[in-house]
């Protein structure tokens, strides 16, 4: 029976509870002792991902002690499961030669992931400790942009010539040490991709059949220059578990597996989520100072928004002399527009990300959002207008409020749909658009409409 | 060579472009002809997921024609790739007996997915067309809640007794027709789970080895009553491709595979995204009326928010007589608080979803967010205060604005962190909290603080 880590789940029942208990004992140990034997004992048999989870839950000083205590037995795979900012922190606890030594056992795509985090001078140094051939290979790969097939793929890939028999392929698989794989890829004499066989179909084949007879002429190959959006779209559409990456001559140069794609999909939608909330990337593990500075940019746009709003109010100041009722109702149109705009933008951003919204249906989508805004704007604007009339016993106040809410919600529906589409067309990130841009326009429009309408209705 | 659909990608190059071209020709065909042969010709060789993508891009009337035209050759797998609201629409185009007939070829978990969408009377009727045993099985499964292991798993699972040799297992695999699988599960004589063998390790085994010798005593089993959060957490932590589902006696009753988990993970984070934007679920494919009504609830909370704000302003109306400068600056504190609160809430919601934020680090996270709010509040409150002083040449105006911004941002930081955590503790969805609740409190606090401070500073 192969020896594997026992993992926490088996030993202690429910997973999250088990992790929590482990964190508690780890914290106590780190705070009260410097004994690295005890630490290694505590971590013994745990999976790298479990250790990473534990490390993420420590204070900075505890984390330092923990990593240094584990150092001699530190498994590089732990790094892969850490959040980016913590990974940098932990990597910096090693010197370059130590780092290269622990990296050398990882698969090529994982080494690249970690090297990418280092600064150029450091990864150059780290590469010096690798065998010449490997270090040249990594340097070459590091030149490619991060979010392409080339960066996602693993280079270790098994391929078999189409004239081989199943038994020959089996023999070859048994003879070599490969990471886990899910499909058998068949190539011609120039390593050009011909087809694939799902592993569970492969084991059903008779030993003397030719690979060319049992393979599926699959069409799911990934050109090396594809971006991650195209790759995730393809994995999702065809429910792939692995797919070969080919160069421009159709030769197989690597393989992308579902676990990497899963991480990309999750990162992407989490990123959109952060952007919608006005955050560049999750700063959960960042320090107070970095977090504060990182959040300032959106808040500065809010400052500009607020100043613009104030200027609008100042411009209409003479209207304000008219009636106190107007001052009391002033913020309503802006609030209604802001929130209904965010609703439209949220749907648009998500539909753009999943490629459901595209050139073919954008006009229809815009039209629908305008209709929705008209409907909700008329309903809520009408309701609020009546309320304002009853409150201040003045039909003009009701007209001003109702009109401002209706027109601002209409604008919000249009802008909430158009902004993400335009930004996507300009190759920007649509999720970044909705928050700041949209709120600023709905605020300025909201106050402007309300006060402008007041001016006209009360003046004449 | 096995015969498979050719798929669009091979025939026409780039995937999305190919799909777009196909949609264009499909639309023309449906608008100008009723010939179902031409339609079947156009769809020939396409994957179900591709056809689903095409169907999603049609207008309602085109969609009806398309589905009815395909009817005789309609592949039930197409249904699995449609968004929930469209799936209902398409299912309703079939009568119950037709539907049962096309469903019968699907795997059990997929049939259940579709049956769940039907209303109780309809799925009862549909089950009448299945063989008695199957229909009883489905009825039993449909009783379980939707988001548990039981609903996610597939019941068709290969298991092997531990005393079998590798060659016996191979023979059995070859003899039976199974859906794709990734791991070989080994059980004792009572079907209790003992261990598993990754398929790529299994093919390396010698034929006469015992399964009990080559298996890994894996700990990654899923109790049947686990919820989807625990399941996705486990798949992510251990990078699983498939895992056995066991009943309370540790007997294997099914298997969950990575493609289902991937869909759950994506749906969950997309759902959080929608909630943050004030939408219950993506209404991209819904009609105008359903969309409008669906979005009203959050907008109604905004109405309450706006009325509360107006009441606050009315309460402080006597302050408003003092100085026009105050009226002009009134909305700023509310806007700053609202946006910084959403930032804190966004990070908290996401960290709760990935289980990074939990009882162990919530106090530290709250403390950090308070520090961040203090820092940014002091910086931006100070800056805006100075600006207001320069604008209105009155130190009191500056003090009022600066103080209101600082304190409201401080409140926003606390509320943005606490609200999601409290709602999660109460087993609610934290993503639903942030928008409406948070904005209402930061608006009311923002105006209240600004006007209250004005009252005190100008009065005395």
From TrEMBL, chains A, B:
Membrane topology: Multi-pass membrane protein
Keyword terms of this UniProt record: CBS domain, Cell membrane, Magnesium, Membrane, Metal-binding, Transmembrane, Transmembrane helix, Transport
Any one Gene Ontology cellular component term annotated for this protein: plasma membrane
One Gene Ontology term of the molecular function aspect: magnesium ion transmembrane transporter activity
Gene3D superfamilies cross-referenced by the UniProt entry: CBS-domain, MgtE N-terminal domain-like, SLC41 divalent cation transporters, integral membrane domain
Pfam family, one: MgtE
Record field: transmembrane: 296-316, 328-350, 370-392, 399-423, 435-458
SMART domains for this protein: MgtE_N
Subcellular location: Cell membrane; Membrane
Domain CBS: 215-271
Function summary: Acts as a magnesium transporter.
PANTHER family, per database record: MAGNESIUM TRANSPORTER MGTE
Subunit details: Homodimer.
Annotated family: Belongs to the SLC41A transporter family.
Protein name (database record): Magnesium transporter MgtE
């Amino acid at each position: 029976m192969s020896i594997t880590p026992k993992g926490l789940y088996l030993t202690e029942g429910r997973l999250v509870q088990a992790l929590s208990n482990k964190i508690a004992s780890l914290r106590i140990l780190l705070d009260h002792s410097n004994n690295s034997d005890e630490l290694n004992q505590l971590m013994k048999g745990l999976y790298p991902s479990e250790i990473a989870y534990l490390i993420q839950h420590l204070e900075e000083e505890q984390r330092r002690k923990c990593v240094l205590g584990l150092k001699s037995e530190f498994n590089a795979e732990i790094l892969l499961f850490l959040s980016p900012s913590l990974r940098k922190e932990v990597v910096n606890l090693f010197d370059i030669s130590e780092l290269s030594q622990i990296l050398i056992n990882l698969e090529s795509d994982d080494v690249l992931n970690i090297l990418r985090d280092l600064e150029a001078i450091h990864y150059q140094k780290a590469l010096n400790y690798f065998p010449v051939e490997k270090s040249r290979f990594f340097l070459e790969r590091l030149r490619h942009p991060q979010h392409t097939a080339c960066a996602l793929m693993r280079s270790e890939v098994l391929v078999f010539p189409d004239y081989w028999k199943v038994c020959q392929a089996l023999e070859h698989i048994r003879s070599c040490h490969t990471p886990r794989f899910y499909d058998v890829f068949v190539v011609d004499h120039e390593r050009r991709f011909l087809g694939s066989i799902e592993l569970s179909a492969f084991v059903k084949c008779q030993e003397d059949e030719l690979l060319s007879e049992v393979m599926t002429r699959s069409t799911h190959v990934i050109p090396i220059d594809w971006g991650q959006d195209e790759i995730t779209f393809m994995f999702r559409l065809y429910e792939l578990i692995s797919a070969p990456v080919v160069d421009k001559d159709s030769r197989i140069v690597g393989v992308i597996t579902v676990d990497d794609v899963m991480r990309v999909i999750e990162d992407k939608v989490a990123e959109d989520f952060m952007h919608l909330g006005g955050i560049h990337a999750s700063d959960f593990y960042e320090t107070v100072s970095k977090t504060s500075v990182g959040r300032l940019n959106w808040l500065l746009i809010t400052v500009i928004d607020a100043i613009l709003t104030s200027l609008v109010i100042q411009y209409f100041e003479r209207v304000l002399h008219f009636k106190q009722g107007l001052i009391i109702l002033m913020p309503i149109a802006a609030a209604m527009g802001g929130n209904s705009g965010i609703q439209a933008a949220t749907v648009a951003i998500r539909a753009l990300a999943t490629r459901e919204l595209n050139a073919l249906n954008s006009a229809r989508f815009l039209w629908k959002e305008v209709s929705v805004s008209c409907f909700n704007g008329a309903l809520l604007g009408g309701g609020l207008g009546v309320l304002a009339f009853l409150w201040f016993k003045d039909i003009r106040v009701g007209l001003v409020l109702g009109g401002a809410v209706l027109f601002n919600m209409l604008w919000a529906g249009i802008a909430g749909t158009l902004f993400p589409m335009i930004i996507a067309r300009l190759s920007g990130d649509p999720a970044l658009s909705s928050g700041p841009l949209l709120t600023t326009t709905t605020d300025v429009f909201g106050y402007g409409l309300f006060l402008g309408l007041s001016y006209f209705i009360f003046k004449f």
